[in-house]
Amino acid sequence: MKPLLSLFFLTLAAVADELGLPKVKHMIDTHIHLYDTAREKGVPWPPQDDALLYKPHLPDEFKAVSKPAGLTGVIVVEASDRPEDNQWVLDLVKGDEFFVALVGNIDPYEPDFEERLANLQKDPRLVGLRLRNGRQRKTIDYTDPKLLQSLRAVARAGLSVDLLVNGAGIEAVKNVDQLARTIPELRLVIDHVIGYDFDGGPVPGDWIAAVEKLGENKNVWCKISGLYQRSVPQPAPKTISHYEEVLEVLWDNLGPERLVFGSNWPCTKKTGDYTSYVRLVNQYFSKKGQEASERYFWKNAVDAYQIKLN
Q1: Which of 51, 96, 108, 134 has its CA 20 to 30 A from that of 154?
Q2: What is the distance between the alpha carbons of residues 33 and 62, in angstroms, rounded to a whole number?
Q3: In degrees to the nearest 10, what's the CA dihedral of 63, 65, 66, 69?
């Protein structure tokens, strides 16, 4: 390496160290939402009475707030249940390599699910789907034949499935475990620390036991994402001690190869700025060593979503 270039990277590393930011080759945020409340039909999420979130959240703003933290790329997760909004996001970030991929949304209960999937997959930026309950379903029946048929089609297409199980507790862990064993060829990415509610109390033993069983499935990854939102005390603590006991359970059972970085921006705004969230998770992973940090901040995203980085 040329002396000046070497000095440049050493300087970046020193700055990152001083600011409490990770020193990694890439940093890929696997979980943000983009939407425009000013569109003619508005958006189905977030709710209109949420003054902080119900306003446009678009690429230029996200790049401005995330790049100072060292972010090098992002996967957008579609928060809308409207099929046309998948293409809206893809068009919104077309040609911008910072936006690496999309986890889209197609209702798996629709009779033409496979046709819709094939059409959306014509864009190579589609890397997965987020499993939602559908417009009329508050819970997911993981034994439903139509659901399983659709998810097997996702597996055949080489895509992953994101699972949102917020607040469902031990039953969520057991349900994901059942699904992982039913379709072992399907890559499953569980959002937001399996929906754990960080209340400051000890981690329940039955939850730990369920996570141990879940960890046996090598087709399961877990996003260490949305920590601010999953905290019961609000605004959420910005010190890792509030979250560390749960993270240790996940580390012990999913290991350094299957924990994935995500922020859940713009929901992070309710507690702090984007850089504060990166500092928070880096408090944990920097203590696990350099390779663990590389795996968490980008390598595991490559495995879970099969993305390609330069």
Answers
A1: 96
A2: 10
A3: 140
Beta carbons of 130 and 159 less than 8 angstroms apart: no
- Chunked into runs of 10 residues, the chain (310 residues) has average pLDDT values of 48 58 98 97 94 97 98 97 96 98 95 97 98 62 94 98 86 94 98 95 96 98 97 96 98 97 97 97 98 98 94
Contact 283, 240 (CB under 8 A): yes
Measure the CA angle with vertex 177, ends 117 and 103; round to 5°. 30
| Cβ-proximal residues to 31 (8 Å cutoff; 6+ apart), any chain | 75, 77, 191, 192, 223, 225, 226, 262, 263, 264, 265
Residue with tokens 């921006």: 265
**Helix, strand, or coil (residue 138):** coil
Nearest to 216 by CA among 243, 176, 246: 176
Residue 210: burial class (beta carbons within 10 Å; 0-12, 13-18, 19+): buried
Structural domains in the chain, sorted by start: 26-305 (3.20.20.140)
Element (H, E) at 12: helix 3-19
pLDDT of residue 167: 73
